[in-house]
Amino acid sequence: MKLKRGKLLVDPPGSASSDIAFILIIFFLVCASVQPEDGQDQRLPRAEPQADERKQSKNLEVSITANSIVLNGAPLDEASFPARLAEELAERKREEERVVVLKSAPKTPYTRWIAVSQVIDQAGGLLTLEVAEEKSIQVR
Amino acid sequence: MIIQRRQLTATIPTFAMGDIGFLLLIFFVILARVQNDSHIQWVPAQVEEVEPAAAARASVAIDSGMKIYLDGRETSADSLAGQLETILGDAPEGSRRVHLKVHKDTPAERFEPVIEAISEAGGDLTHILETKESER
User: Domains in chain A, ordered, with CATH?
Assistant: First the structure.
């Protein structure tokens, strides 16, 4: 007669599972917190309260709104703007001639602004902002 | 006859010291590296090309509610230049980097004064952006 050998039930040790879970949480936290960020560097001239108007008139001027681009008074479409800007900048060899003044309508969204500024950077222009100053005048 | 009581020696278990030290190390790494503006709600603008951004001395953000933050604390555009000058101090060029995180729909009237303030403080500006996902 054969006697069946009793099978031993082997339980995996569960005492360390909470420690393992804790270390996994910390691991994922570290991964999330050190996630590298991507971006775009932008060289801007130091802000001055009053710009030299004579110099400014020689600079290229780009005016943007939410759905239009105007280069030196000439309205352009989105597709032709990079080529037209590169063409204008190609004639300007000196650094101070490559200044591009960017004027934005107050409601221009950031997404549009950054796309236009990237085109200016890629074309080799030196981006300068013209920000409208708010003045309050008391009227009697 | 007097039976002497056995003296019990109390020893501190040092078995887990390595684990404790390791956990403390990780804890301080998180504290040091965690971004203090992670609570700000914003969606980055998407562009064609981005580069890995270098570490910054300060981080300026504009959230979806158009509020301005400097290193996670709410501030105003008027006081930003002064606060940034304090943070940047006399740091040499190249280590005056300021990250700018602007919610994608923020209007120019809100973000331009912030850019102006960073420029006024002499900060090296880096826009934090996302790569545009190609349409399939």
Answer: 53-126 (3.30.420.270)
pLDDT digits (tens, 9 = 90+) for A97-137: 888 889 999 999 999 999 999 899 888 888 888 776 555 44
A99 vs A12: which has the higher pLDDT: A99
pLDDT at residue A125, rounded to an integer = 86
Give the residue on A whose Cα is nearest the Cα of B113.
Answer: A131
ipTM, two decimals: 0.74
Q: For residues B4-29, give the mean pLDDT.
A: 78
Give the phi and the psi of residue B35 in degrees, each rounded to 5. -80, 130
Residue of A nearest to B122 (CA): A46
- Asked if A38 and B50 come within 8 Å (Cβ–Cβ), the reply is yes
Q: Tens of pLDDT along B93-134?
A: 888 899 999 999 999 999 999 999 998 898 899 999 988 875
Whether residue A26 and residue B30 make contact (CB cut-off 8 A), yes or no, is: yes
Number of structural domains (chain B) is 1
**B67 occurs within a structural domain:** yes
Using the beta-carbon criterion (under 8 Å), do B33 and A105 form an inter-chain contact? no
Q: Which domain holds residue B126?
A: 46-131
> Of the candidates B52, B104, B107, which has its C-beta nearest A107's C-beta?
B107
Please check the confidence at residue A50 and state whether its pLDDT lies above 60. no
Distance from chain centroid for Cα B73: 11
Going by C-alpha positions, the residue among A88, A79, A130, A135 that lies closest to residue A108 is A130
Pick from B108, B68, B20, B1: nearest CA to A102: B108
DSSP B64: T
E strand or H helix at A33: helix A17-33
Chain B residues in contact with A34 (beta carbon < 8 A) = 33
